[in-house]
Amino acid sequence: MSNRKRFLTRELIEELLAESSDSDFSNSEFDDSDNQTDSESECSDSSEGTVDYSFDQPSVDIFSWSSSASDRQCVAFTGQSGIQVDIDDDNSEDQLTFFQLFLTSDILDIIVLETNLRAAQLIASQIRTTPHARINNWSDTNADEMRVFITLLLYQGIIQKPTLDSYWTTRLLLSTPYVRFIMTRDRFELLLRCLHFSDNSTAPTFDNKADRSFHKIKPFFDYVVGRFSSVYLPESNVAVDESLMLWKGRLQMKQYIPLKRARFGLKTYALCECSTGYIWKSILHTKTSTMHLADAADGLFSSRIVMTLMKDLLNKGYCVCMDNFYSSPSLFRELRQQQTDALGTVRVNRKNMPQDLKKPIPKGSTVERYTHDMMALKWRDKRDVAVLSTYHNGEMKTIQSARGQKEKPVAIFAYNEKMGAVDLADQMLTSYPCERKRHKIWYKKFFRHILNQIVLNSYILLKKTEHKFEDVARGFQDKAH
User: Fold this and answer.
1) How much is the average pLDDT of 197-223?
2) Residue 40 pLDDT
3) Which of 108, 174, 292, 312 is deepest in the core (most CB within 10 A)?
4) What is the b/e burial string over 373-406, where b = at least 16 CB atoms within 10 angstroms of the residue's CB?
């Protein structure tokens, strides 16, 4: 047999087609009869599936982007926002009433029980080695004394001094007599040393040090976050972002975020109300907490965080705002299918993003691409900014800048208004921080941080009942700008 290559001429191709008995090469594709090929019927089925504009579309992997805007509207808000517990009209302006909505007598009793148990364990371990230690004079605490102790922790956030001993000094220049009148220094230090939230002896076995450490304060953290969500339902606009509590000591769960002011510390993923900064739900970043996140259609870790935080707010018409760490077309489609709008900046190299957004554009120009349920927009200002939205189109808005008037996309304008909720909460938390910078035990500093969040949420609810919080939040935002 010859090894020469056989070139297909036109005559040879016609000869092969004539000899072939396969009906696929017939002219049936031009025939209007029912003799349609299998490949054509399969193609027509898939095209019908892509053009399904209902929100019940099961597939989130098919994205057909076009330059023509689709007719989309905001999902109607059906949630019952506001305080979800009964408050007496006589106590509606009492600050302590709102504080006790979160720090209830139930959790105080648990803290008292675990603190007394921890003190007994310390006494048993030191009574032989150090018989004259101060811990041997311990007397069990109770809920009333624990409230006084927490009061002093909050007071230290208002009146800040370099050392704890400074609060009990008798020097006229530095003294704060109020502290000495309600609790002695030795008793305060004993309570702070024995403060505990879970029994170490009954702790389960963990595979890593981070979960073992988090178990020390997990019951208190879960209870308070649960109260945040059950006491109040936010308004229609919420935001998801990271928050960081400063901690530079050795800790397995410590994270590094260079854009945050603290940079090193404990990272929490928080969902806050856009207008006030109310902390509605948060997740501490540990290995176990990230393993039990809700499922997301694209399987991304960031998408699972959003679905976990939004789990109890889905199908109520909420609009969630997020930055480019979380945003993806698959996540936005999944939220929209569950009657939830979404808005956020996005990375143009995310999966299923339109290819046209990856091309450079001149300054001041925009490029938009649409599917039936979302818009992807890229705008060139000082740098490229890309956003995803389930309810915006490519409308522009004239704004006044330092260099005169310019056109800005409405979607980006809305994002700048709504996205600062978590940053607003962090800004207000730094006004009177009750956590001390040089605290040596991380979970006791985190306990102070949670107390600070309780005070913030109590303050927000108090001002909402007085209809004054809009002015307060606006003042914080103006100060930030």
Assistant:
1) 87
2) 36
3) 108
4) bbbbbbbeeeeebbbbbbbbbbeeeeeeeeeeee
- Helices of type H across 34-176: 38-50, 95-102, 105-126, 143-158
As for how many domains the chain has, the answer is 1
Query: What are the CA-CA distances from residue 99 to residues 228, 272, 283, 454 (Å)?
Result: 11, 18, 21, 7
Cα dist. 243→47, 267, 268, 272 in Å?
44, 6, 5, 11
Q: Does residue 70 surpass a pLDDT of 80?
A: no
Whether 331 contacts 303, CB under 8 Å: yes
Residue-number span of the structural domain to which 170 is assigned:
84-208+431-481
| CA angle centred on 320, ends 70 and 260, rounded to 5° | 125
Residue 460 falls inside a structural domain: yes
Residue 267's beta-bridge partner residues?
Answer: 244
pLDDT for the residue numbered 381: 87
Integer-rounded Cα radius of gyration of the chain: 30
- Alpha-carbon gap, residue 320 to 313, rounded angstroms: 10
Distance CA 346, CA 358 (A): 12
pLDDT in tens, 289-332: 777 899 998 889 999 999 999 999 999 999 999 999 999 999 99
* Integer Cα distance of 475 and 133 in angstroms: 51
Q: What distance in Å separates the CA atoms of residue 177 and residue 168, rounded to the nearest whole number?
A: 8
The model's pTM is: 0.81
d(CA 328, CA 377): 13
pLDDT tens digits, one per residue of 106-146: 999 999 999 999 999 988 887 666 777 888 889 999 999 99
* Kind plus residue range of the DSSP H or E element containing 384: strand 384-389
In a domain, 328, yes or no: no
Task: Name the burial class of residue 458, with classes exposed (0-12), middle (13-18) and buried (19+) by CB atoms within 10 angstroms of its CB.
Answer: buried
pLDDT tens by residue, 143-167: 999 999 999 999 999 999 999 999 9
Q: What angle do CA 208, 210, 216 make, to 5 degrees?
A: 115
Distant-in-sequence, close-in-space partners of 45: CB < 8 Å, separation ≥ 6:
none
Q: With contact defined as beta carbons under 8 Å apart, do 406 and 88 qualify? A: no
In this structure, is residue 274 part of a structural domain? no
Q: What does the block give as tokens for 204?
A: 């389960």
In this predicted structure, what is the pLDDT of residue 25?
Answer: 36
More confident residue, 333 or 289: 333
- Domain for residue 151, yes or no? yes
Q: Which residue bears the tokens 């979380």? A: 326
